[in-house]
Amino acid sequence: MSYVWIFISSLLAGIAASMGVGGGAVLLLYLTAFAGMNQLAAQGINLIFFLPIAVVAVCIHAKNKLINYKSAFICIPFGLAGVWGGLWLTRIISENLLSKLFALLLLYMGVRELLAKKEKN
User: Fold this and answer.
1) What is the pLDDT of residue 57?
2) pLDDT of residue 6
3) Which residues cross the membrane (predicted)?
4) CB 10 within 8 A of CB 49
């Protein structure tokens, strides 16, 4: 792994994460497609990477009064349930299938974004 590419991908992931547009996807793509890391190891690094990024982003969003705490606290239990569901799934499906599902999700999100109608302000 080249430190230059690690720096660039981490910087891009941090920028994307601060905007709430999937910084984890950027980092996972780099780690799996370009750094040759297996999917589960890349996910572990991504989770560690996300912790300090999330703290900074939450502080900035809170300072700018951009957080709807009521909605956030409603979402948290379902997010936690999703984590347990995801952990369960990673134990029963192969890493190869997991990588393919991740690729399909990214493809779907990209196509959806390209075809989305732009809202008028």
Assistant:
1) 85
2) 86
3) 12-34, 40-60, 72-91, 97-115
4) yes
DSSP state of 31: I
**Mean pLDDT, 10 residues at a time, the chain of 121 residues:** 84 82 83 89 90 88 95 96 92 89 88 85 62
Number of domains in the chain: 1
Contacts for 55 with CB less than 8 Å, ≥ 6 apart: none
pLDDT value of position 121: 62
- In contact, 53 and 43? CB cutoff 8 Å: no
The domain in which residue 81 lies consists of 3-115
22 in a domain, yes or no? yes
Q: Where do we find the tokens 């750094």?
A: 35
User: Is residue 120 in some structural domain?
Assistant: no
